[in-house]
Each structure stands twice: as structure tokens, then as C-alpha cells.
Amino acid sequence: MSKSNDKKFDVCIVGSCNVDLISYVDRTPKIGETIEGNKFEKGFGGKGANQCVQAAKLGGKVAMISKLGDDVFGKEYLDNLKKLGINTDHVGITKEAATGVAPIIVDKEGRNSIIVILGANLLLNENDIEKAEDIIRQSKVVVCQLEIRQETVLKTFEIARKHSVLSILNPAPMSEKLNRNLLSAADVICPNQTEAEVLCDFTVETIDDAKKACKKLLELGSRIAIITMGDQGAVISNEDGQYEHVEIEKSSSVCDSTGAGDSFVGTLALLMAREEKLSLKEQVKRACRVASQSVEKKGTQTSYPTKDELRFNLFE
């Protein structure tokens, strides 16, 4: 790894910004059915920005590389990132497409259904990443997801590796057309159990299934694999070929699970940047605890705890 003392940023996120359009309902409507909802809210989302915001709210020095539309949503989004102290030097604005949006339905159990219209996110290209090389070089950890073009993700990881910057791939949303080279281009792969099933081509329901999936991900070229398993915690495999189950305390009051996976990834990236001496298992355990706390409040980024709101000491 490159020396940490020449690093300006803990985490650089290359990914999506979407405006969440959230409808709260008793139940999800059937096809062709109109139902009355209980409440509507607009929020800031997108997997990339969510992860970025969680790392920033926990006190991380964070940079965002993304693309917004030249519209009201885009302007509001840029202001939101700046207010949180996130570096936005490489958040581009385009007239070619609208800012990404995500209509979300949340039922009374807190379960969600989401449609994502990526818009401007898909215009973030390799050229934009090359222009942002300096930001990537000055970061300890770089993270990508799959709400931007896969070629853009590959270029990001190529630059990260050139400068010995730790890279994390969160393969979400999962695509059947995933470029398998991404698995070896990133240092760490962090899917949830559904995404792991697509990657590995077998069912991942139990902890043993997840351990087999970790083994398969390492065979496919990943160096470290972390599979999140909802309220079962996570399963990890490190470079020594050890497979471990990280158990978590279940949250007693689930209100809204939207964005919990991104809370986990953003926290994990920050811990990997700041707390290199911690074991992978401890880093994952702490990231799970932050994500568990995030489901207790409504919304996405608004539900993410700050460092002061955490019920435990994240950095020690």
C-alpha cells in the first residue's frame, strides 16, 4: 500500500447519485391496482453517494466522483454533498441526461421495492476518471458499485492499482452481464447474499452456503470476499483462506431498511482506511453495527448515524 501520510482522503467513492422518491404504504400494490399511500418524501440516494455520505457522517475525509443532470435535482444534490463536507471537484454536470431518480415503495414492515432510472450516472465515463486520477491517488480506499458503466469501474480500479490504493467492489445492483474481470480488478468484493448467488451460480441461504460462495469468489479472482447476510450478519474470507461468520445483534426496531447495505459499505471503507490494525472480522462487525442502527430511522441518507449518534465507539 502507498504511504498513508501522503493521503488527503480516507475514501473516494466513484458511483451514482439518485434522488429517492419515497412512498410509504401499508402494502405494495398488485399489478393494475391503485392504492392510497400514507406519506411521500423526497430524499438523496444512489448507492455511490449513500456510501460516501455514511463515511462522511462518521467523520471521514471523503471525495465523490459522479455525474448529475443540469436540473433542479442535480443542483439540490450538489448542495447536499457540499453541506456534508464532501469533496465535489469531480462531480460533473451534464445537459445530456437528467439526474438519476429512484421511485421507492416502503411497506409497513419496512420492506422496500425500488425502480432506478440512472440517467446522468451512465454518462460518467473513463475520461472523467482519468481527469480525477489525482483524487484517486490521494485516497486510502476507493469504492465502486454497478449503477455506473462497468468500463468506468474498470478504469477506476486500474488507476487505484497503479497507485496502490485499496479498492472495494460492491456489485450492486447485480447484472447477469457482469464483466468478470471486475472480480480480479478489485482487492475486496462485497456482495449481499442475492448478488453472491448470481456471481456464484448457486443458492446462498445459509452460513455454510455463504462460506462456499466466498471460496468461489476467491477462485474467480477476488483477494478478499465479504458477503452480507442481512440479520444473519456477514461471512468473510481473507487472503489466508480463512472463512468466518460475523454474527450481529439484531436491531429491535426495524423501521426502514432502505440504504442499509450502503451504510455498511461506507462504514467498512472508512474503517479499512482509518483502522488498518483492526482484523477484517472486527472491521466487518463494526460496519454491521452501524448499518443495524441505520434501519431504525426512516429514509436513506437521513437515517445514517453520525459518529456522535453511534451507541459504541467506532474508532478505538
TrEMBL record:
Free-text activity regulation comment from the record: Activated by a monovalent cation that binds near, but not in, the active site. The most likely occupant of the site in vivo is potassium. Ion binding induces a conformational change that may alter substrate affinity.
EC number: 2.7.1.15
Record's keyword terms, sorted: ATP-binding, Carbohydrate metabolism, Cytoplasm, Kinase, Magnesium, Metal-binding, Nucleotide-binding, Nucleus, Potassium, Transferase
Record-annotated Carbohydrate kinase PfkB domain positions: 10-306
Lineage: superkingdom: Eukaryota
Residues bound to K(+): D256, T258, S294, K297, G299, S303
Active-site residues, Swiss-Prot/TrEMBL: D262 (proton acceptor)
Gene Ontology biological process terms from the UniProt entry: D-ribose catabolic process
Catalytic activity line of the entry: D-ribose + ATP = D-ribose 5-phosphate + ADP + H(+)
UniProt-annotated binding residues for ATP: N192, T228, M229, G230, D231, Q232, G233, G261, D262
UniProt-annotated binding residues for substrate: N18, V19, D20, G46, K47, G48, A49, N50, E147, D262
Keyword set includes Nucleus: yes
Pathway per the UniProt entry: Carbohydrate metabolism; D-ribose degradation; D-ribose 5-phosphate from beta-D-ribopyranose: step 2/2
Principal cellular location given in the protein's record: cytoplasm
Cofactor field: Mg(2+)
UniProt-annotated location(s): Cytoplasm; Nucleus
Molecular function (Gene Ontology), one example: metal ion binding
Function summary: Catalyzes the phosphorylation of ribose at O-5 in a reaction requiring ATP and magnesium. The resulting D-ribose-5-phosphate can then be used either for sythesis of nucleotides, histidine, and tryptophan, or as a component of the pentose phosphate pathway.
Annotated PANTHER family: RIBOKINASE (PTHR10584:SF166), SUGAR KINASE (PTHR10584)
Descriptive protein name: Ribokinase
Organism, as annotated: Adineta steineri
